[in-house]
Specification:
It is a single chain. With about 300 residues, this protein is an alpha/beta fold. The protein has 2 domains: about 220 residues, Aldolase class I (TIM Barrel, Alpha-Beta Barrel), CATH 3.20.20.70; about 60 residues, no CATH class. The protein contains 14 helices and 11 strands. The strands form 2 sheets. The protein has an 8-stranded parallel β-sheet. Strands 7-11-10 form a 3-stranded antiparallel β-sheet, with helices on one face. β8, α8 and β9 form a beta-alpha-beta unit. α8 crosses α14.
Length: about 300
């Protein structure tokens, strides 16, 4: 396919970025996505030495660009921000806060900076700070979400900024990528589709829960704490909803989710763990390698665009 602003900016073959999912996006997954022509992202959640080890492992697995997702509310964010410079990581994506204090130093080290944004106002602010692009994430996504949908948010951000826009949330196949392009985005970020990739090391119970998900199987918890999270329904979500409806304290609600993602990812507890996944989980029906996933996505996209523009 033809190059886009994102493929040129990031020096990648296809305009597909793998989401930096905590406890999930490790060096093996990120390197496989990068090798397949997309941009793999390692989660920066964890102690600094562990993140450094993942970066170095990714370098041993691929010579193509990959990135780190920096969660700005973490206690060790200053260390992680410095680490990506020391390790010459190609790209940083950010979430859960403003990266303003770090952008100048990252840019001095030739790192591309791409914040995840939930609104037009924040996208404009990131552009002023010097971000190279923004990932515009709608509430269809898995994990921590905002209030606006991808369909409504992406074109408004495209109209408001001059830097490239990457669409995220609710994108699971070539049709979703094509729709994102029509909205003005020049790339996409995907997380849920890669959960069931062969290189993703989450527990098989987690993968099978995603594969068996239906269109109505996601739930948003934590709305009363201003930290809404989209997950697949289970015993934990029922407890969340019950506690929120009974006006439980924010502290009790937050405590309910402590360690829940790890229980799902590592232990395979899909009843009491936080099984984060987006609304497109119902579209995900088979386990594939990252290369097979990306080849299929691009094949679907090219066939669809060819059909549309040749009719």
């Amino acid at each position: 396919m033809e190059s886009s602003r994102i493929t040129e900016l990031l020096n990648i073959e296809y305009p597909i970025i793998q989401g930096g999912m905590a406890w999930i996006s490790d060096a093996t997954l990120a390197a496989a996505v990068s090798e397949a022509g997309g941009l793999g992202i390692i989660s920066g959640v964890g102690n600094t030495e562990d993140v450094k080890a993942e970066i170095q492992k990714a370098k041993s697995l691929t010579n193509k660009p990959f990135g780190i997702n920096v969660m700005l509310m973490r206690d060790n964010v200053d260390e992680i921000a410095k680490l990506v410079c020391d390790e010459n990581v190609a790209v940083v994506t950010t979430g859960a806060g403003s990266p303003g204090k770090y952008i100048d130093n990252w840019k001095k080290n030739n790192i591309k900076v791409i914040p995840v944004v939930p609104s037009v106002a924040i996208a404009k602010r990131m552009e002023k700070f010097g971000a190279d692009a923004v990932i515009v994430e709608g509430m269809e996504a898995g994990g921590h979400i905002g209030q606006l949908t991808t369909m409504s948010l992406v074109p408004q951000v495209v109209d408001a900024v001059d830097i490239p826009v990457i669409a995220a949330g609710g994108i699971g196949d070539g049709r979703g990528i094509a729709a994102s392009f029509m909205l003005g985005a020049c790339g996409v970020q995907m997380g849920t589709r890669f959960l069931v990739s062969k290189e993703c090391k989450i527990h098989e119970n987690y993968k099978n829960r995603v594969l068996n998900a239906k269109d109505i199987d996601t739930e948003v918890t934590g709305t009363s704490t201003s930290h809404p999270v989209r997950v697949l329904r289970n015993k934990l979500t029922r407890e969340y909803i019950k506690l929120e409806k009974s006006n439980g304290s924010p502290e009790d609600i937050e405590a309910l989710g402590k360690g829940a993602l790890r229980r799902a990812v590592v232990d395979g507890d899909i009843n009491n763990g936080s099984v984060m996944a987006g609304q497109i989980a119902g579209l995900v029906s088979k386990k594939q390698s990252c290369k097979e996933i990306i080849d299929e996505l691009i094949g679907e996209l090219e066939e669809l665009l060819g059909r549309v523009f040749n009719e």
